[in-house]
Amino acid sequence: MKKTVTLTFSDGSPSIELPIEQGTYGKPVIDIRTLGAHGYFTHDPGFTATSSCTSDITYIDGDEGLLYYRGYPIEQLAYQSDYMEVSYLLLHGELPTAVQKTAFEESIRHHSLLHDQMENVFRGFRRSAHPMAVMIGVTGAMSAFYHEGNDLFDPKHREIVAHRLIAKVPTVATWAYKFNEGQPFVYPQNHLSYAENFLHMMFSTPCEPYVPNPVLARALDRIFLLHADHEQNASASTVRLAGSSGANPYACVAAGMASLWGPLHGGANEAVLKMLDDMGDVSRIPEYIKRAKDKSDGFRLMGFGHRVYKNMDPRARIIRETCYEVLDELDLRDDPQFKMAMELERIALEDDYFISRKLYPNVDFYSGIIFRAMGIPPSMFTVMFALARTSGWVAQWNEMLSDPAHKIGRPRQLYTGPERREYVPMDQRGA
Ligand code: CMC
C-alpha cells in the first residue's frame, strides 16, 4: 500500500492527505502538488527540503559521501572510464559500446570548431574582461548562431545541441583565455583527445610545437569527469528553470554558467586560491581559522563545507590523489603554497568547529591547486568547472524536455510586502 501523510490544522480546518513517493534511493518525498487546490503553498527558501523534479541521472548521498552517475559509483568511473564516456552515459543513460563511443567522440570532434564570425564576438569584449564573463557572453551568443531549426521536442535536435555544446565549450574557454593574454586563438586539433585538445588550445602558440603532457591530460580528464554532474544544484536548476519555458538551449546553458560563477558555487576554487594568496604563510593559518569561526566576521574558509555532503565529498578524495600526481609530475611537492594548503587541511580536519559541523575540504579546495600547478590562472578556474559541467547541464536539460509531463517552472512566494494602498501623487508626498 502506498504510504501517505496527513496534514492536520490547529484551527480545525479539514485535514489533507498527501502521497509519499520513494525513489530508487534517498529520502522519501511528500508529493505536495495538490496542496494549491486546498488553498496552501509550501515555503522553502533555498530549496533545502524540496525536490524540484524526478531525475534518473545522478544520485548523491551526502551523509554517506556517495555519488553515482546513472547508478555507477564515481570512484569506478574516475578510475576506469573517461570524460567522453561519462558524457555519453549522462546523456544517454547507458555506457556506450565501443562503436557508440567512437561515433560520439567523432561527433564531438566534428563540432569543436566555432563559427568564424564568433571570433568577432570575443573581440567585442575588453581585453581585461574576466574569462567567465566572456564564456557566459559567448555561450549565450551561440543562440544567435543556432536558433533556427532547434525543435526542442525532437530528440535528434536535442542531441545535436548537446554535442555542439560539449564540443565547443573547450574552444570558447581557451579562447577567452587567449583573448585575455593577447595571444592568437588556437584552433582545435581533431587527432587529440578532449583533454589534450584543451591543453593544446590553452597553451600552444604558433611559434613552437606543443605536445600535451599525458599525465596532465589524464588529470584534467579526471577533473572534468568528477565535475560532470551533481544533480539539482544551483546551476543545473537554473538551466532547467530557464529551459522549462522552451528557451534557446545555448542561452539556458549560459544562464547556468552565470549561476555557477558565484563564490558559493563554482567560483569557490578561485576563492580558495585568493584566500591562500592573502594568507601568504603557514603562520597565518590560525588567524584565518579564528576568523572562519567568528560569526560576526562573515569570512568563511573557502573550499570547506558543502550543502549536501556532510561527510567527505567522494570527488574530493579522488581529486586529492590527482593533486599529488600532478604536483609530483611537475616537481612541485615542495611548493610553499601547496604546503600551506595541506597544513590548512590538516588543522581544519582536527578542529572541533569543523568536525562538529561536518565541514570537510570540498572538490574546489584541490582543483584550484591542480589548475595553478598546470599553469592555469585563477581567473580560469570557474571556466574549467563550467566546461566540465556542460555535459551535466545538457543531460539535465534533455531529461527535462524528454518528459512529456514537463511544465514551466514557476515557484510561489510568501508575500510580506505592504497591503493594498492608494497611489500618492508627487506633490502630496512631503519634502
Ligand atoms: N567556513 C566556516 N564556517 C562554515 C563554512 C566555511 N566554509 N561552511 C559552513 N560553515 C558553518 C556555517 O557558518 C554554519 O555554522 P552555524 O551552524 O554555527 O551557523 C554551519 O557551518 C552550516 O553552514 P550552512 O551555511 O548552513 O551550510 P550551507 O549548506 O548553507 O552552505 C556552503 C554550504 C558550500 C555554501 C558553505 O559551506 C560555504 O560557504 N563554503 C565555502 C564556499 C565553498 O567552498 N563552496 C564550494 C561548494 S562545493 C562546489 C559546488 O558543488 O558547487
How is this structure best summarized?
With 431 residues, the chain is mainly alpha-helical. It is built from 17 helices and six strands.
Structure description:
This protein has 431 residues and is mainly alpha-helical. The protein folds into 2 domains: 1-51, Single Sheet (Rubrerythrin, domain 2); 54-404, Citrate Synthase, domain 1. It is 50% helix and 5% strand. The chain has helices at 74-80, 83-92, 98-110, 118-123, 131-145, 155-181, 194-203, 214-226, 234-243, 249-260, 268-279, 285-293, 314-329, 336-350, 352-356, 363-374, 381-402; strands spanning 4-7, 16-21, 29-30, 58-61, 66-69, 72-73. Strands 1-2-3 form a 3-stranded antiparallel β-sheet, with no helix packed on it. A hairpin with an 8-residue loop joins strand 1 and strand 2. Helix 6 (155-181) runs parallel beside helix 7 (194-203). Bound molecules: carboxymethyl coenzyme *A (CMC). Residues 230, 233, 264-266, 268, 292, 300-307, 357, 359, 362, 364 line the site of carboxymethyl coenzyme *A (CMC). InterPro entries: Citrate_synth-like_lrg_a-sub, Citrate_synth-like_sm_a-sub, Citrate_synthase, Citrate_synthase_AS, Citrate_synthase_bac-typ, Citrate_synthase_sf, Citrate_synthase_typ-I. Belongs to the citrate synthase family. One of its GO terms (cellular component) is cytoplasm. GO terms for molecular function: citrate synthase activity.
Provide keyphrases for this structure.
binds carboxymethyl coenzyme *A; single chain; three-stranded antiparallel beta sheet; 431 residues; acyltransferase; Rubrerythrin, domain 2; citrate synthase activity; Citrate Synthase, domain 1; Citrate synthase; mainly alpha; Citrate_synthase_bac-typ; globular
